[in-house]
């Protein structure tokens, strides 16, 4: 049992993490580098420049897609070959690690379901993966949107506590919604799912972001899209690994 | 059936073994979940400078509160 849990969770999880890292470099890394150029002041958004007229600034900063791409290429180039390679290798390693952690939790859930008499097939595994995405990324993102570098948020410890509470409540709520058999379970699920958002995430009274709003929005959307694809793959891989380890 | 061993004793023995097996399975499940949660904590939340810098881009793209 323990071997099946660890081999299934870690191997499937790390593989899903490598897939996620691929998507990270295809969709997200360029926006992180661009956000850092605004964070360091290498690029200045018109609203933070102070005296630039809005209409003129708008046409300067948001001309077309090719314009953005120029900044991205510049940012990547300035890192230098070695440091960029190290940075990206660490991103691949840690994305693999975090998904290995997710994978272990997911397979532990499969094992618990099996103890309770419910076999998790590959299709149900994908649903568990999507539920994991909702619990660990989508629900927390409704209070604390994925942050582009340069964003300024409330106290980190308070945000982490709200994040953890939201993950636990949402995970519990979804499990009750999916497998609960009574009206009381459905009501409890609703309360658990809503509670973190009724309480509300910690926020500052003012906004301090240095990057254009459009860039932050694009980053958040892509982060969530990549998360959904990665979690669906994680659920599929974990269910395959878990069930193939049965014999 | 061996002499001196009743059907009830065999049944009791089987139940004890099943209970022990379930107990071991639950311990394994809790252990795996704890290791998973620990990995998530260190990769996603720990604020030591080295870990933060190494995991920085992943934390941003997976929506962990980073700074």
From TrEMBL, chain A:
Keywords associated with the record: Membrane, Transmembrane, Transmembrane helix
Positions of the UniProt region annotated as Disordered: 54-80
Matching InterPro entries: CbtA_put
Basic and acidic residues bias locations: 57-73
Transmembrane segments: 89-113, 125-145, 160-178, 183-199, 219-239
Record's protein name: CbtA family protein
Organism: Albidovulum marisflavi
């Amino acid at each position: 049992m323990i071997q099946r849990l660890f081999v299934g969770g870690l191997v499937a999880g790390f593989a899903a993490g490598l897939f996620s890292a691929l998507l990270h470099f295809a969709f997200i890394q360029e926006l992180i580098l661009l956000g850092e150029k605004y964070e360091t002041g290498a690029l200045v958004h018109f609203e933070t420049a102070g005296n630039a007229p809005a209409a003129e600034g708008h046409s300067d900063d948001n001309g077309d897609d090719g314009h953005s791409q120029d900044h991205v290429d510049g940012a990547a180039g300035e890192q230098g070959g070695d440091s960029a390679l190290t940075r990206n290798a660490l991103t691949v390693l840690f994305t693999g690690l975090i998904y290995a952690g997710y994978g272990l939790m997911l397979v532990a859930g499969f094992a618990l379901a099996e103890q309770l008499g419910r076999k998790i097939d590959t299709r149900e595994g994908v649903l568990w993966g999507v539920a994991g995405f909702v619990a660990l990324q989508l629900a927390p993102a409704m209070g604390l949107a994925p942050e582009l570098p340069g964003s300024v948020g409330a106290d980190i410890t308070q945000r982490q506590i709200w994040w953890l509470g939201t993950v636990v409540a949402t995970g519990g709520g979804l499990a009750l919604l999916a497998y609960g058999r009574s009206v009381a379970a459905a009501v409890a699920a609703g309360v658990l799912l809503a509670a973190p958002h009724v309480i509300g995430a910690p926020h500052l009274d003012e906004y301090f972001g240095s990057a254009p709003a459009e860039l932050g929005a694009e980053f958040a959307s892509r982060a969530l899209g990549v998360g959904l694809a990665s979690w669906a793959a994680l659920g599929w891989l974990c269910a395959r690994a878990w069930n193939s380890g049965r014999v | 059936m061996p002499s001196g061993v009743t059907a009830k004793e065999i049944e009791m023995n089987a139940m004890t073994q099943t209970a022990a097996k379930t107990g071991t399975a639950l311990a394994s499940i809790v252990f795996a979940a704890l290791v998973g949660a620990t990995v998530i904590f260190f990769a996603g939340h720990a604020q030591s400078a080295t870990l933060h810098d190494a995991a920085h881009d992943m934390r941003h793209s997976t929506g962990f509160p980073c700074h």
